[in-house]
């Protein structure tokens, strides 16, 4: 079992301040990354939709990258990472964000990317561990995953296919499958949150610490609550059967994450900044260095970066690292990395 505080100690309002700070990136994102910037070329960074952790984290990275490198980075939100990862592979996007499971599947052409390998994906950095789980109304009678048997939960995730094995793994920790719940099709996690607020769902699956989670808590009488996973060897084995590389970490309550009402074991996995192999070495080098040297700046923009550890940006994965990132890690003695 891993026990850790969730997303630092900056407080609920820091999460909202960070969210407000990155909203300025929306206008830039809508302009796209293809148009050249006044001082030179612009580099696109693909994220999930507004309100998600990856959107806010990507905006923070783009802000720091632009401020610290003299280059210009712009976020481009998509319906989900299953849409943006192939665009990074093709070079249409220079950078993107995805979790380690989806990145590995995409690179190897396995599972949700079966028959469609993306061999030009490269890792730039591990940005933080991502905590996710099923969230219910705080005043409901749901206190365990098993309590959701026969209840309405989101399924499908057509633009975020990696949510399928993750969600199946969460159900498996309780000895359940999709046959045990009433599935309501949604394209992505934001739509699931919308349906939950509208009363169409009894629970929704979301990353912990996201602005959309806080919005749901504020809009629902009594707020929301994160359901715990059973933290046992059997539960972990069931989870990893569907989602290899994940683990269970116990996170602590904090004002910045209102759904965490007490010490709660949850699904956890590494989240990555990835690049196309076609991205320029010097650009990747400069961005890698800027991230390594800017933990406090990143955290002040978005509190999730309190869990960003510059010393652990490089790990050994199936996906190779970009040469520009390797150059920087080699200079600081962080290459070769430990096993991820």
Keywords:
single chain; 340 residues; alpha/beta; D-Maltodextrin-Binding Protein, domain 2; 2 domains; nine-stranded mixed beta sheet; two-stranded parallel ribbon; 36% helix; globular; disordered N terminus
List the helices and strands and how they pair.
Blueprint: E1 2-5, H1 12-31, E2 42-47, H2 53-69, E3 72-77, H3 81-90, E4 95-99, H4 100-108, E5 121-137, E6 152-156, H5 163-172, E7 182-186, H6 189-197, E8 204-207, H7 211-219, E9 224-226, H8 233-242, E10 247-252, E11 264-276, H9 281-292, H10 295-301, H11 323-331
Parallel strand pairs: 1-10, 2-3, 2-4, 6-7
Antiparallel strand pairs: 4-11, 5-8, 5-9, 5-11, 10-11
Helix pairs in contact: 1-2, 2-9, 5-8, 6-7, 9-11
Describe what this molecule looks like in 3D.
The protein has 340 residues and is an alpha/beta fold. The protein has 2 domains: 191 residues, 3-Layer(aba) Sandwich (D-Maltodextrin-Binding Protein, domain 2), CATH 3.40.190.10; 126 residues, D-Maltodextrin-Binding Protein, domain 2, CATH 3.40.190. Strand 6, helix 5 and strand 7 form a beta-alpha-beta unit. 54% of the residues are buried.
């Amino acid at each position: 079992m891993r026990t850790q505080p969730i997303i630092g100690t900056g407080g609920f309002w820091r999460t909202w301040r960070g969210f407000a700070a990155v909203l300025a990136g929306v206008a830039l994102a809508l302009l796209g990354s293809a148009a050249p910037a006044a001082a030179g070329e612009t580099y696109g960074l693909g994220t999930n939709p507004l309100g998600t952790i990856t959107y806010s984290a990507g905006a923070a990275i783009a802000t720091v990258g632009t401020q610290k490198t003299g280059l210009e980075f712009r976020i481009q939100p998509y319906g989900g990472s299953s849409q943006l990862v192939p665009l990074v592979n093709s070079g249409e996007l220079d950078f993107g964000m995805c979790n380690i499971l989806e990145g590995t599947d995409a690179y190897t052409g396995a599972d949700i990317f079966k028959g469609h390998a993306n061999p030009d994906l490269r890792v730039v950095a591990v940005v933080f561990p991502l905590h996710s789980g099923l969230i219910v109304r705080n005043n409901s009678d749901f206190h365990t995953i098993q309590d959701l048997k026969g209840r309405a939960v989101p399924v499908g995730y057509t633009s975020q296919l990696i949510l399928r094995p993750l969600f199946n793994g969460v159900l498996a920790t309780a000895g359940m499958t999709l046959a045990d719940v009433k599935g309501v099709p949604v394209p992505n996690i934001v739509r699931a949150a919308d349906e939950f607020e509208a009363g169409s769902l009894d629970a929704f699956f979301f990353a912990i610490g996201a602005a959309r989670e806080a919005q749901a808590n504020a809009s629902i009488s009594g707020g929301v609550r994160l359901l715990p996973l059973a933290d046992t060897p059997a539960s972990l084995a069931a989870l990893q059967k569907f989602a290899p590389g994940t683990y269970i970490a116990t996170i602590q309550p904090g004002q910045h994450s209102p759904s965490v009402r007490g010490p709660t074991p949850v699904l956890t996995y590494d989240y990555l900044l990835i690049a196309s192999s076609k991205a320029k070495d010097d650009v990747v080098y400069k961005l890698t260095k800027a991230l390594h040297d800017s933990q406090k700046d990143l955290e002040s923009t978005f509190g999730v970066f309190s869990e960003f550890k510059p010393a652990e940006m490089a790990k050994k994965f199936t996906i190779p690292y970009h040469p520009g990132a390797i150059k920087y890690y080699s200079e600081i003695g962080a290459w070769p990395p430990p096993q991820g």
